[in-house]
């Protein structure tokens, strides 16, 4: 077990994320003792395992009690350890709200519907819906049109999109922004979702959804 733990821990730290389909990652998901040993090893160096049943990858992040030591510098407080400027962080939250929030709503609704229809005693152990089957992309031109003035202009948006893509938060394919390996892991859904839904961004997303279903004039 020690060698497998060392390999998985090193890969998570070096690569920042690995797919759940990886043999060692799958072992961490089904072997409770192995999972506990992995979490203990990561905790010893101030890290924690990041995974949820809706994401296709697992990653490592900073333990909450380590934040002050890593992000706090005297009277200053770093917003992140990836050198992301404030407008890039704002863009990251916008993309999370546009991609992950609706994806999660569909996943939860589908999982609940499947559980209601399950009659076998092992049905609850079936995996939840994941991946691009329910994840939708955001056209770059639509993002520019909606948020260009608020997030520094098209040129600045394009620079920040490139940075978020390099870090693994998003993927850019054919002028469409898609979910990257870290988008559903690095941002805490339970904390961020209520703030987005109940805040100003929630109103923007609501208006956008209403406009999307309105019939276009002839």
What does this structure look like?
The structure is a single chain. This protein has 218 residues and is an alpha+beta fold. The protein has two domains: 2-73; 86-213, no CATH class. The protein is 54% helix and 12% strand. The protein is built from nine helices and eight strands. The chain has helices at 2-15, 23-30, 32-43, 67-71, 86-116, 140-147, 153-167, 189-198, 200-213, and strands at 17-19, 47-50, 57-62, 72-73, 76-77, 138-139, 170-173, 176-179. The strands form three sheets. A three-stranded antiparallel sheet has the order 1-3-2. The protein has a three-stranded antiparallel sheet with strand order 6-8-7. Helix 2 (23-30) crosses helix 3, helix 5 (86-116) packs across helix 7 (153-167) and helix 8 (189-198) crosses helix 9 (200-213). The longest helix has 31 residues, at 86-116. It is globular. Residues 121-127 have low confidence and may be disordered.
Question: Order of SSEs, N→C?
Answer: HEHHEEHEEHEHHEEHH
Strand order of the largest sheet: 1-3-2
Largest sheet: 3 strands, antiparallel
Number of distinct helices: 9
Q: Could you tell me the number of beta strands?
A: 8
What does the overall shape look like? globular
Q: Which class do the helix and strand fractions yield?
A: alpha+beta
What integer value in Å does the Rg equal?
19 Å
Question: Any idea how many domains?
Answer: 2
Q: Enumerate the spans where pLDDT stays under 50 for 5 or more consecutive residues.
A: 121-127
Percentage of residues in helical conformation: 40-55%
